[in-house]
Amino acid sequence: MPTRLSERVKQLTQRFGYDGAEREVRVEENRQRRLNEIRLKAGNAIRHEQAKERRQVMKRRSQIERMSNPLEATRAATNVGQERMVNDMDDMEEGACSKTRKSCTIC
Q1: Of the ranges 7-11, 26-30, 40-44, which one carries the lowest mean pLDDT score?
Q2: Among positive and negative, which fits the CA dihedral 86, 91, 94, 100?
Q3: Pair 107, 97: CB distance under 8 Å
């Protein structure tokens, strides 16, 4: 090989050359990091799936409970509705009449 080319090869080797052992270490570190990322993602997916199953079980239980005790479910819904009506009536009593400057002609 001519001297000019051999000098150029030495320069390029120093500039772009790499140590094979160092590269193997980096490859192994990257492999382990990637495997840990996959494990973490799989763990998150499992936890997400378990939470989804728990929500479905709770939903099924509440549906079964409503079907087995329809009167209690109706009473609970009625009580909530009555509480809302009472709160709305309280708001109405304090509403427009208390906000007018002069006495209310409607009440």
Answers
A1: 7-11
A2: negative
A3: yes
Residue with tokens 């009440």: 107
- pLDDT tens profile 66-89: 888 877 766 665 665 555 555 555
Three-state secondary structure call for residue 79 = helix
pLDDT one-digit tens code per residue, 57-67: 999 998 888 88
Q: What share of the chain is helix, strand, coil (3-state, %, to 5)?
A: 85, 0, 15
H runs (alpha helix) in the chain: 3-16, 20-68, 70-94, 96-99
CA triple 57-59-61, angle to 5 deg = 70
